[in-house]
Amino acid sequence: MSNSITAYMFLAMLLLSIGFLGVISRKNIFVIYMSIELMLNAVNLMFVALSRYNDLMSGQIIAMCIIAVATAEAGIFLSLIVVLYRRKKSLDSDIFNTLSQKEAL
Q: How far is CA 3 from CA 42, 49, 51, 56, 64, in A?
């Protein structure tokens, strides 16, 4: 069982690293969002693997709660992406650094 837990943890750390690199290296808001979701799923994989290793259900319950919150967050974030795209006609994150300021005419 210890070999399988190390494989799951290695996979989760790999997914977390790929997601982190995607967040810091990309400028497209949609790609950044997908990288954040990848990191979230890596954490879920860690919770489930550790829960299975310790014969507990708490990690799986936490993962289900995280998935439920992530679905609500996905709806809000994707609607925000649509609104920002309609307003600026681009998904480049550099454009959105002045969201709180009024646009000059």
A: 18, 12, 15, 19, 25
For 81-86, the CB contacts below 8 A with 24+ separation are: 81/29, 81/30, 81/33, 84/29
Evaluate whether residue 84 is within a structural domain.
Answer: yes
Half-sphere exposure of 27 (CA within 13 A, CB side): 7
| DSSP single-letter state for residue 93 | G
Task: Provide the whole-model pTM.
Answer: 0.78
Yes or no: say if 64 and 73 are a contact pair by the CB < 8 Å rule.
Answer: no
Residues 33-83: pLDDT tens digits? 899 999 999 999 999 999 989 888 998 999 999 999 999 989 998 888 888
Task: Specify the 3-state DSSP secondary structure of 92.
Answer: strand
CATH of the domain at 9: 1.10.287.3510
